[in-house]
Amino acid sequence: MAATNSKSRDSAQRGARGQVLSRLDRWHSYRQHHRATLKSSTVKILREPLQSLLTVLVIAIALTLPAALYLGVENIRQLSGGVDASAQISVFVKKGARESALEALGEKLESLSGVASVSYISAQMAVDEFEALSGFGSALEYLDENPLPDSFLVQPLLVSDAPRLVTEIRQLNLVDDVQLDLEWLQRLDALLDMGRKLVLALGAALGLGVILVVGNTIRLAIQSRRDEITVVKLVGGTDAYVRRPFLYSGLLFGIFGAMVAALMLTALRFWLAGPVDKLALLYQSQFSITGLGLGGVITLLLIGGTIGLIGAWLAVGQHLRNIKPR
Amino acid sequence: MSMIRFDNLSKRYESGYEALRSVSFEMDAGEMAFLTGHSGAGKSTLLKLLMLIERPTSGNLLINGKNLNRLPDAKVPFYRRQVGVVFQNHQLLFDRSVFDNVALPLQVAGYSQGDIGRRVRAALDSVGLLDREKANPIALSGGEQQRVGIARAVVHKPKILLADEPTGNLDPQLSAEIMALFKRFQDVGVTVLVASHDINLINRMNMRIMRLNQGEMEQDGVSYGGY
Q1: Are B91 and B101 in contact (CB under 8 A)?
Q2: For chain A, how far is it from start to end, CA to CA, in angstroms?
Q3: How distant is the Cα of B81 from the closest Cα of chain A, in angstroms?
């Protein structure tokens, strides 16, 4: 009884205050419709498992390809970050320099800005290393004197500092020649640039494909619900109301596709992990494959959802206009 | 003020076919009238204009004093929520229960679940189908289906109730029941316009009859001599 009383008081207040509460009511039912639509869209997708699975798989594959390429490029870039260490500057010293002068040069090199470390390689050490590594050691025995100069290995802090250091070092006394082998790094950089552009191009093309696939799926859904759309329009459903379930379907297809793509990428990563570790071991590298990570998965889901939504939006815009009550 | 006012309304389709020619009439709030005429006389077009499925080529259509010509397309859904429509083929959806069919206009307008339950049962009660709310409409007889259609048309308490050949597929007994139902809604203040060519039936109702002939209002009055 008390409940009934408070209810009637409620509606009396509603009448007195008018708009505000009724807008609140509308907001509640609007949200409720969103929830109900999300639920019914999910149910509709699950009710046609084969058709839905095909759509989701196509989307997943279309997302996996550029994402895998992206991960490949990123991993190689990380690898190349690791070899910054090998961007060393070899400083060859003029023959016949005295020991004290060599020491002074070493200190001078260490004091240059942007230098991480300097190590001294005497002519004798260079010969020993050459003998050990090349296997042509016995050839040196035919020479009267050691043909190799004393040298320093300068390790720059940043690869980008290397060219400046080279010019500075060239101007120092006793320096015969300076070598910096950056070319292959620059080539790798250019390749990575190309790879990134390829990711974008492939991503754009396959994204367009996803839009078309979702659009087509939504178009079929619209056709099969033609009667319902007609009746809803006749009883005063707005375009937004009619559109909503299809937009949710598109969104869900995109997100499900992205989820499957994330699974595929994870599987790919574990599949490749063994051989890559072996390879890294051979190169005495700490390298191991980096996967998507949480941020990557979220980005993938966002991209999938957005593309699905766009596909649905385009299909709905085009096909709902054709359905008018007769 | 009249609820419905046709002011020299004409409708010419893009094909050049003139469906209505300068039709004028008025209906007061709470009035009931029949619209009759041969097929192709313009009955359906007139109802479509009232539901804003079509827009007139010329002339004014005023509902409750408001000119519908000035109503932008985006506002059309909100206008339709004030109108209830019963179709000859009832336009029920067979993928859901009787209850959900009747609830559709309320869901579309954003009523709460509680309100929807109460109003749908009241509407089903008024057409005598309260016990069938869980049934699928496909399992109902033709007369019952039409009554579900009427329940859906009145569930949101529209000011205007339109019916397009509501008894088209029904036998005389059921047709009379349906017409009596319309009369009951008129009694509670709804403006009711029924398009029908069932002359025998509407003559017996002793109400205002408007007859269209080739797009023109040929006759408008209570006494109607028949064909």
Answers
A1: no
A2: 49
A3: 5
CB A23 within 8 A of CB A227: no
Q: What is the pLDDT of residue A7?
A: 43
Q: Do B78 and A236 touch (CB under 8 A)?
A: yes
Q: Shortest CA distance to A321 belongs to which of A242, A262, A260, A227?
A: A242
Work out the number of other CB atoms within 10 angstroms of the CB of residue B48: 19
* pLDDT tens-digit readout, B156-209: 999 999 999 888 778 888 888 888 889 999 999 999 999 988 888 888 888 899
The domains found in chain A, sorted by start residue, are 34-82+187-320 (no CATH), 88-180 (3.30.70.3040)
Amino acid A9: pLDDT = 43
Residue B113 at interface with chain A, using a CB cutoff of 8 Å: yes
Contact A29 B110 (CB under 8 A): yes
Contacts of B92 (CB under 8 A, 6+ apart): B101, B137, B145, B148, B149, B152
Rounded mean pLDDT of chain B? 88
CA distance A41 to chain B (A): 15
DSSP B90-120: TT--TTS-HHHHHHHHHHHHT--HHHHHHHH
Residue B151: CB atoms within 10 Å: 28
Asked if ipTM goes beyond 0.90, one says no
Tokens of B199: 């002359």
Phi, psi of B84 (to 5 degrees): -110, 140
Q: How far is residue B18's CA from residue A171's CA, in Å, rounded to a whole number?
A: 97
CA distances from A163 to A166, A189, B101 (A): 5, 16, 77
Q: Is B4 left (phi over 0), alpha (psi -120 to 50) or beta?
A: beta
Residues of A in contact with B111 (CB under 8 A): 29
What is the C-alpha separation between A283 and B43, in angstroms, rounded? 87
Q: What are phi and psi of B115, to 5 degrees?
A: -55, -45
- Is A235 close to B81, i.e. CB distance below 8 A? yes
The encoded tokens of residue B219 equal 């006759």
CA distance A257 to A293: 17
